[in-house]
Amino acid sequence: MKKPGKEERQEAIAQILGNSSIESQEELLKQLSDRGFELTQATLSRDFREMKVAKTPDAAGNYFYRLPGIQLPQPKSEKFGMTSPFFRHGIINIEFSGQFAVLKTPGGYARGVAQDIDTNNIPGIMATIAGNDTVLVILRENSNKADIILSLKLLFARE
Asked: Where in the cell is it found (predicted)?
């Protein structure tokens, strides 16, 4: 039997992290072992660095391993007319300046957060521009900042 290589192993890691909520390296090592991959924690840590896997919190403060830009499957629900596929890594901080809001996210997640905001057509938000860990939100004139914060909480809140 051919020993699976690095590419196959990293693809398996990506599949597992994309489909499961993994809280520990031991849990991931067991799932990899079940798929025929035998590796050490040191090898897994090297794969994490190369793949830019990070352990990041969800809105409830639970930490999970994720790839940048990966959204774990969540049940869809309706909240005041908005679809809210809970984006598991969420927003770290928000600051307002005039007609702008700056959202801080974990590294690599700003694009996904901006896409969720744009997809949900939040009243008062004209557009978003995403960097690596920052989203610039352009607000409409006379938009209510409290309403924007409430809409973002509804969009990114855990069920």
From this structure: Cytoplasm
